[in-house]
UniProtKB/TrEMBL annotation:
Lineage of producing organism: Bacteria, Bacillati, Actinomycetota, Acidimicrobiia, Acidimicrobiales
Name of the top EC class for this enzyme: oxidoreductase
Name of the protein in question: Glutamate synthase [NADPH] small chain
PROSITE patterns: 4FE4S_FER_2
Pathway: Amino-acid biosynthesis
Stored Pfam families: Fer4_20, Pyr_redox_2
Protein encoded by which gene: gltB2
One of the GO biological process terms: glutamate biosynthetic process
Length: 487
């Protein structure tokens, strides 16, 4: 029963507040102000506890949203913490970073503003950590089996936590120097401070997970060695190969994939002895790609002191309101203003890059672009005589990712890949190799943290069943899941 059955009639949605732009541009701290808990109690009371909570289906994790909304609405934060963690290993990540498909599926969103589900989720997580309610949950027995997980992003970490709690000995191998995958070196500090990640890693370590950073499987250890030493292997390698701009001049200096830039910016904040090879200070920057990665580049270059920034997107500007092609409760393509977009830079839509101009030393100096428009078949066509030139000292490619990097595996050890370049699995997340499973972006293709956690939980269920004959671990998604959610 909703905490206040008439709450949605009495209270309006209050969005979480961001710190003033001029203040936050001077630091790297999270852009949102601290949560006012009494306001969150009111906001949770807007949840109607609908007969059919579509928010459940909007969320790949099947989060028990009306249940924890009701508990927060009654000021029962400890119980809300328990319900939240029942389906989500890392709500402090999704509470900050998820595009919240649950909110676009909220029944209230049919004719009013949705419940602030994501912010309530974040508030519950923060209250839980502040009260030390997030304790290690140690397995009550050991199965005698061991599992290797390759990749320490949200998919690998969720799988590891589920499996260690089920009593398996779990080792996570990570090629980077620190654990976390894109949570560590992709997502900038202003979206999630790394202390939030480290806090959760403390719990995982205490639960018994062994972490082996600086270890590339395929180089430091072969996949065959893992298969010999472990009863099961999970490949949670992410989708790390960037889509590149193969255009005249694209091999110039100063043109680089976003993930050759963002990790250095974050590393420099935590390691004073590290000097990033490239920064945007006093540079004219062009970002190719209008998505989340592009926005993360934007917020980063603005904080580094770029003199001018333009973000180009090849698709036309999305609509301001839900288009007919994406009716409720689907996740609609909308014109969104992220925190970085509030902070500066220009955005241009329907622009295709034609070529880069380089100086005699091979350094990029400008980019030539052209306008594009959708034709009757929905294909992008270049508009005649629409070429424009913009000067640029740094061009960041944020145009997406094309699949996991399997290049370090010997050919005969490589799992079968799909036509999309992702690792193929059967309905049990098993690859073509006996005892080897795959999950997360490596399997699904470039996606979201919430999907990575859902896949990590699901692959853990199937690994546990493979080792034990059956499994009590939850399994929120199947490999062919689409749910109502995006990507
Ligand atoms: C810049 C950026 C910003 C993003 N922002 C958001 C956001 O705000 N919200 C959101 O929901 N999603 C966001 N995403 C997407 C999200 O981060 C990913 O969907 C998610 O991290 C995928 O999780 P994963 O565990 O499958 O892979 P990853 O997080 O990519 O982790 C894979 C890990 O495997 C390691 N690895 C790969 N090969 C090997 C090997 N051979 N040996 C050892 N280790 C290996 C990699 O080093 C990496 O650490 C963003 C993505 C990017 C690039």
């Amino acid at each position: 029963m909703a905490a206040d059955p008439r709450g949605f009639l009495k209270f309006s949605r209050q969005n979480p507040e961001r710190r003033p732009v001029q203040v936050r541009l001077r630091d790297w701290k999270e852009v949102y102000k601290e949560s006012d808990l009494s306001e969150q109690v009111v906001q949770a009371q807007r949840c109607m506890d609908c007969g059919i909570p579509f928010c459940h289906r909007g969320c790949p994790l099947g989060n028990l949203i009306p249940e924890w909304n009701e508990l927060v609405g009654r000021d029962r934060w400890a119980s809300a913490t328990e319900r939240l963690h029942a389906t989500n290993n890392f709500p402090e990540f999704t509470g900050r970073l998820c595009p919240a498909p649950c909110e676009t599926a909220c029944v209230l969103a049919l004719n009013r503003d949705a419940v602030t589900i994501e912010y309530i989720e974040k508030s519950i997580s923060e209250v839980a950590f502040a009260h030390d309610w997030v304790k290690p949950i140690k397995a009550t027995h050991q199965t005698g089996h061991n599992v290797a997980i390759v990749g320490s992003g949200p998919a690998g970490l969720a799988a590891a936590q589920q499996l260690v709690r089920a009593g398996h000995a779990v080792t996570v191998f990570e090629r980077a120097d620190r654990i976390g995958g894109l949570l560590r070196y992709g997502i900038p500090e202003f979206k999630m401070e790394k202390a939030i990640l480290d806090r959760r890693l403390g719990q995982l370590t205490e639960e018994g997970i062994e972490f082996r950073p600086n270890t590339t499987i395929g180089i430091d250890l072969t996949l065959d060695q893992l298969k010999a030493d472990y009863d099961a292997v999970v490949l949670a390698l992410g989708s790390t190969r960037p889509r590149l701009a193969e255009l005249p001049g694209s091999d110039g200096h100063g043109i680089l994939p976003a993930m050759d830039f963002l990790p250095h910016a974050t590393r420099a904040l935590h390691d004073r002895s590290f000097t990033p090879p490239v920064t945007a200070t006093d540079k004219r920057v062009v970002i190719l790609g209008g998505g989340d990665t592009g926005a993360d580049c934007l917020g980063t270059v603005l904080r580094q002191g770029a003199s001018e920034v333009v973000q180009l997107e090849i698709m036309p500007r999305p609509a301001d309101s839900r288009p007919e092609t994406a009716p409720w409760p689907m996740y609609p393509p909308l014109f969104r203003i992220s925190s970085a977009h509030e902070e500066g830079g220009d955005r241009m839509f329907a622009r295709e890059t034609v070529r880069f101009e380089l100086d005699s030393s091979g350094q990029v100096v400008a980019l030539v672009m052209a306008e594009v428009a959708l034709d009757e078949d929905g294909k992008l066509q270049r508009v005649a005589n629409s070429e424009e030139r913009i000067e640029a000292d740094l061009v960041l490619l944020a145009m997406g990712f094309v699949g996991p990097d399997l290049s370090m595996f010997d050919l005969e050890q490589r799992p079968t890949v799909s036509g999309r370049g992702t690792i193929s699995v059967d309905e049990h997340f098993r690859t073509s190799t006996e005892g080897v499973f795959a999950a997360g972006d490596a399997r699904r293709g470039q996606s979201l943290i919430v999907w990575a956690i859902a896949e990590g939980r699901s692959v853990a269920h199937h690994v546990d069943a493979y080792l034990m004959g059956n499994s009590d671990l939850g399994c929120p998604v199947a490999p062919d899941s689409a749910a109502l959610a995006i990507m």
